[in-house]
Amino acid sequence: MSNEKGPLLEMRNIRKDFFGNQVLTDINLTLHEGEVIGLVGENGAGKSTLMRILFGADMIRETGGYGGEIRMDGQVVHFNSPFDAIAAGIGMVHQEFSLIPGFTTTENILLNREPKKRTVLSEIFGERLDTLNRTEMDERAANAIEMMGVSIDRNMIISDMPVGHKQFTEIARELSKEQLKLLILDEPTAVLTEKEAEALLASIRGMAERGIAVIFITHRLQEILSVCDRVVVMRDGYVVNESKAEETDVYEITRWMVGRDVKLTEAEDEGRSFENANTILKVEKLWVDMPGETVRNVNLEVKEGEILGIGGLAGQGKLGIPNGIMGLYHSGGRVIFEGNEIPLNSPRKCLDSSFAFVSEDRRHVGLLLDESLEWNIAFPAMQIHDEFLKKYLGGLVKWRDEKAIKEVTDKYIEELAIKCTSSKQKAKELSGGNQQKVCLAKAFALKPRLLFVSEPTRGIDVGAKALVLDALKKFNRENGITIVIISSELEELRQSCDRIAMVSGGRIAGILPASSTLEELGALMLSQVI
Amino acid sequence: MNKTSKKKVNTDMGELMRRGSVPLMFILICAVCIPLSGLSPNMLVNEIVTRMGRNAFLILSLLIPIMAGMGLNFGMTLGAMAGEIGLILVSDWQIVGIPGMVLAMIISVPISVLLGFFCGKILNMAKGREMITSYIISYFINGIYQLVVLYLMGSVIPIRHTSIKLPRGYGIRNTVSLLNMRQMLDNLIPLRITLPGVGEVKIPVMTFIVIAVLCFFIVWFRRTKLGQDMRAVGQDLGVSRDSGINVERTRILSIIISTVLAGFGMIIYLQNMGNIATYSSHSQIGMFCIAALLVGGASVDKASIGNVFLGVVLFHLMFIVAPRAGAAITGDSMIGEYFRVFVSYAVITVALVMYETNKRRAKSRESERLREAQMEEEG
User: Fold this and answer.
1) What is the CATH number of the domain that holds A197?
2) Sheet holding A340-342, edge to edge
3) CATH, domain range B41-321
4) In A, residues 78-137, which contact B (CB 8 Å cutoff)?
5) In this prediction, does ipTM exceed 0.85?
């Protein structure tokens, strides 16, 4: 790490807000040639936004740009698009693969940068009719793969490849760019087997020796410690710590990541114990094929009357659990509710068994956006339990009981303090927090025995958050309804749940009482991250 | 290990069966109908060879949009109309034979390019719904074609010869004779070969050469930068765009090339027929070409030159034998006529349904893999 040449990359006082919502505050980051830094932080800490700024993502420009300045080799740069960033020597391997499925490794590595041969027709019609120079393509792909130090088949079709090799193909593509000076790896080991991850770590070291700087984002802290020179920890849009890798350990990093002012928000422990309560729901060997939230082999017991929290990082499968049980994504295994087995992949059967589900996807799954609050709240109960209906001719003709619908809607509007002009207002006209309350009212109106609530506070403000959580608690206490809350916010789970199950790598990593410390929960959260 | 490799073979077999099911069905239909039709082998082979020369070029024009992921280009009808306009003008100018054909092709090119550009622009606005959109565009442009041919030709566009003009003084007659161009290309190099058991077969050598040149062009085109870009765009729009490929332009180019080729194909088709049915020649050509391609085993996202030739042979074999066979069984030749139209639509429907189910099947395979992984883990 010679400093004679000055830093390769300097990010100074980077600030970014999305419509007034500050997500990055005064970030400073310096990177030298051949240096490897690890960037860690919980989901939402601002890592991805920071990298998007560096990579010139369109979405940053569309939302009003950023504050501060970026210097490369001492020059201030301003990337208007990823292509500018690439031209300046930055390469990025994204979490989602960006590969053409039917192309070979070679074709993908050199996608749109293929070496070409001129032909007669291309003289007339322009260079797009040049033929591809296959031999040179092979050579260059082979070079890039060799540089990476991991051997993969050059002629294999991407869709036939194991995921790990797809990841390596992406990395080789970046390495094949001659101007590459800085490589950003966004959770590259997430999809790799242990062996492949080791190979990748070795290859990162190899790249660093060739003078390529690497920003390595991962949740696997052990990897950071073994490969990086420095660790940068982000939390809530700030860089909270920066230290040499050899001077820190996993425990310390975890604490920086999750440990906001731990003492201020001690979980209120009511000491409710459900050890002797009936098991209301038993989940055995559940797998769910929800893209990005795969669940593998989950066993879980929910006790009657409790509030169970399910936490974990995004992409680890916590959202897949309720979505799979409720039949919204393809799943398998056994779900036993009050002694009866519930068939999977059939949402109606779940609702008939008095489950209710408040989806994390309010706008698409949760609400009828163009309909009134009355309709939104009464509709499921009408469908499932034949409520709010007046029956004539012995049930042959059913009319809506508008009066009963209005009554129940007004009751919930008052109870949950939904801000609206009337019960006839359209759902789409409400703010996010109020929409969430309508979702809850809808679920409450179903009078469920078991309620799944997924990300109840995502995207709503602090005041509404407290209201939503209180409403859930009240519903649980007063009606004895068992509730399962799925949330990324540990703090929130600690405040409202009796027990917290941490999901990691698609599996339940452990279940702790809500009074556990953030460090304990954080350690479970990261234990099996894939 | 052994178990998995066996399973792989099984799924490959299943895949092969699925892909081959449509051609197989047609082989069976033909196998039943041929003896019933009572046609001689000589006549059958001659008919097939003629129709191969007549149709292959048109069907080949469908391949490039499929490569670019735009599905079956029902908009090839636009090219067919451009070709017809070229032929109408050339026959009015009394330019006969091969020079007439070449001139008609030259005239059709700018019209095809313009229409293809227009069609491509619209298809870019309707990504994911290219087929239904191009189908409707072909009806829309058919209206404009009728306006031009029925009202503008003779009044605005000078048409001198009364033989092709409507008696009222403007507009083109229902049928335009191409007698002086008829089978000129087919007979340019005359060749008759005698096959054992079949007899004498007439080969349209020059037409086949033209088709072969187009095949070589397509093979070569796949290896060009533009061809590579089209394959990339066809498989994943987002990834291609991120890598810097101009996705919109690439898609428009694929439609333009297809439209121009369809124009040439229509001219070759009509020189073989010997006349233009001014208002109906093009109307069903798109559907029949697409049906033939699908009968050859192509799908919405995958088609090869082999599919084209297999499709021409099987589809037209059915076309020839079905009316005769129908007449032999029921005594009514209309039944076979009805049958072949119905089968064309059926084939297209089946292909579209299969495309969707294959997509769904690929998805459930993912779930299956997950389940298996879990089973393995448990041992």
Assistant:
1) 3.40.50.300
2) A295-303, A279-289, A330-337, A340-342
3) 1.10.3470
4) 82-83, 98-103, 107, 111-114, 116, 119, 122, 127-132
5) no
